[in-house]
Amino acid sequence: MEPNEPSSLDPLTQAFLADHARLPATWRDAPLGLCLSGGMDSCALALVARQALDCRPDQFPGGMIGYHARHALRGSESEGDAASVAELCGKLGLALVIVDAKIEPGSGLEARARLARYSRVRQAAGDSTLLLTAHHSNDQAETVLLRLLRGAGVVGLRGIHSLRFDGVWRPFLRAFRQDLARVCAQSHWAGREDSSNLDLTFERNFLRRQFLPLLESEHPNLSDALVKLAESAQQLEPFLERRLERLSNSLGLQFDPLGFSLDLSGADLDSSLSLDPELDLLLERAWTRCGRRPWAHAQRTRLLSDVASGSAGRRTGGQGEIAIWGGKTLRIERL
Question: pTM of the prediction?
Fold first, then answer.
């Protein structure tokens, strides 16, 4: 295939190339691992990434590979997703790795599936691979609104990051869903529709299909405003990170495969500290870094009050975590 000239490229591909060139040097030469579900968004990711590779092969010395995580939750529909991804990768000349990320039905299904996907794909791809997902501006708006409704603080309102600390890149965060749909339509490729996306018992589905459209019927620029809110919160990140790093060091924050712990014995714990916003942000970030959804602000405040009291105890919550405290230490573990 002859390389395409930049002027002839789809705007998404031009943006993809430009954003990739701005990545930190650590990731610019890394192999690209495309996370492909078979849905329209991830199909657009494969189409755009392939066009970028054809146009500028020297920009991607590590090449690119598709990855599909199979949860085996929807029977033949799941098998159809895998077959569709394989067909698309075959059409584009991309190697494909399919990994099993089986989970059991039950509470917290979406979060558990997301954690299993990232874990299994990362294991298959290796730590040096830059993983790409097709998150876009609509996803960003939904995430910010969802976190706002849950009472998230400034850290939560940063939403989805373009580049995660562990090497996950979202090149489409400045594009909207209709931009990705256009790429698929121009390529005459129809993405798969996950039937679980129609289940309004899932909080994000309800927000996406009913709540947000209702708000946007009165406030058409709401999604844009939510995306700008995330961008504003992210601009504060360097200042927050420096403060949180100092606090983390002073409180002895430690991570391990089961969770994290804080040694607060050297701190002057009292009732006012339990409401300290920086400590609350540090706890929220620690939960997120462990791949877990942070406990609500009120629950975190209660935990710090328990630690401050000097008592010992334990409590379960969240997505199956246990909080253990005593001697002015606090530990969070996955059950």
Answer: 0.76
Return the residue matching tokens 């999604």. 223
Per-residue pLDDT tens digits for 47-83: 999 999 999 999 999 999 999 999 877 778 889 999 9
Q: What is the pLDDT of residues 238-279, one digit of tens each?
A: 888 888 889 899 999 999 999 999 988 766 555 445 457 788
Say how far apart CA 145 and CA 213 lie, in whole Å: 12
Rounded Cα gap, residues 142 and 282, in angstroms: 24
> In this structure, are residues 40 and 181 in contact, taking their beta carbons and an 8 Å threshold?
yes
Q: Could you tell me where the DSSP H helices lie in the chain?
A: 11-21, 25-28, 40-55, 76-92, 109-125, 137-149, 177-186, 203-206, 212-218, 222-235, 237-251, 277-289, 297-309
Return the CATH fold of 6-231: Rossmann fold (3.40.50)
Cα separation, 332 vs 152, in Å, equals 19
| Block residue for tokens 């299994």 | 120
Q: How far is CA 201 from CA 39, 139, 313, in A?
A: 20, 18, 34
Q: Are strands 32-35 and 130-132 parallel, antiparallel or unpaired?
A: parallel
Quick check: 116 and 20 in contact, CB under 8 A?
no
Q: Where in the chain is the domain with CATH 3.40.50.620?
A: 6-231
Q: What does the pLDDT look like over 193-242, one tens digit per residue? A: 888 888 888 888 999 999 999 999 999 999 999 999 999 988 887 888 88
- Nearest 5 degrees, angle CA 118-CA 259-CA 284? 80
Give the contacts of 166 (CB within 8 A, at least 6 positions apart).
122
